[in-house]
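Q&A log
Question type: sequence-to-structure
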Amino acid sequence: MVKSTLAEQAYHELRSRIVSGQLQGGTRLLPAELAQELGISPTPVKEACMRLEAAGLAISSARRGMVVRRFTQDDMEELYAARMLLEKGALEVAFAKGKVTDELLAALTESLNLHRINSRGITLDELAAALGYDRQFHRHLVAAAGIGMLSEWHDRIIGQTHTVFVSVPGNYEQSVAEHEEILAALIARDEVTALDALYRHLSRSRDNSLLQVRSYEQRFTAS
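Response status: OK
Response body:
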């Protein structure tokens, strides 16, 4: 297995841990320790960490080295403003191009069903899986516009918003219900209702993420 492949695998593994909440903001990314854990040499791990920094998921600190990025309230405000612009814009393009197809609806339905199943779980793995299917649902919406650059930007942004691991009881089931509203409007080919449901869903998600960030900042300051 070539070094670039190992670096790619290490990147996806560490990214998955960050997005799922297993590696939380402020956690040090120590190449030697991570390499031993992953069973590879430190070099591809260092390359993976550099990619995480480029993706906005890690930052370099002169004092602590590479650490998982801890998002602030301002970060969340900006990220969700960008998500709203991208997702609503992509959905408008999809409607304009006639891309709200049966194939898209089938893909959204599958993501929603898997999201619903995992949202009832209580383990970290189950909740991480629920978030994964949540992201998949939104990726399908953006991909329907058929603009690759939008999908790339969106993937970067949604990966960052989901590092704020939501742990409020009932949150996941509420997201499922909101996805159901979006899908129902799409099935009816009702653009206005679909855009409104998407906006309300993202607004609620933003407010919840801000609540989590404020709670974390208070605990961090108190400690």
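Response note: Residues 166-170 have pLDDT under 50 and may be disordered.
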